[in-house]
Design brief:
Blueprint: H1 8-34, E1 80-90, E2 93-102, E3 108-111, E4 115-120, E5 125-127, E6 132-133, E7 141-144, E8 149-157, H2 164-167, E9 169-171, E10 174-178, E11 186-189, E12 193-195, E13 202-204, E14 208-209
Parallel strand pairs: 6-13
Antiparallel strand pairs: 1-2, 2-8, 3-7, 4-5, 4-10, 8-13, 8-14, 9-12, 10-11
Amino acid sequence: MFPRVEHAGTRRSTAARAAVALIGLAALAACSSSSSPLPTSSSPASASSPTASSSATPVAPAQPVSPAVTGTPACPNGSLQLKLGLAQGYAGGVYQVIDFTNSSGSTCTLTGYPGVSLVSGPPFTQIGLAAQRGGTAPVKTITLAPGATANALLQIVDALNFPTATCSPAKATDLRVYPPNQTLGVFLPSASEGCAEPVQTLTISAVQAGSGGG
């Protein structure tokens, strides 16, 4: 047998390939050891991670609310003295002033229209329709100091202006007057004649400052 002959060039080529392979393995190991796995979405946040700061604007403390200013109270029935003032006749009826005087020791107010109707009695029974609101006086708040007076003007149309069958004339004994925004009537003697049927014979104005005279 012939002995195997190993050439030097062959040995060198084999050694070089081995060296390259070792270098590649070393580089791969280095990359594997230096890389770290990416955190997953389920990984808990680090305790040292800063928390997000709140962007809400601080709320200013509430300011104290001032108490509401209380106005002058309306005049109740007990503080008013009612009387008939000046009466002025005209062709077909009469204008009758009704005065409202503050008989109390405190200032109060009147606003708007009184309620007025003709009644007969006692016992008092209303005759026909209550007064409708009208007149040219504007509606305004009247402030009454103690002893001061306001008035309203009542127009009473003569029942004889209407056919008897339509009117059914009836003699009154009193005027029943409700001060503005009150529910208790005051009776003032009056011999006016009204219509028992629903015919409008009364018209009342809004209250105004001052006395109507009489």
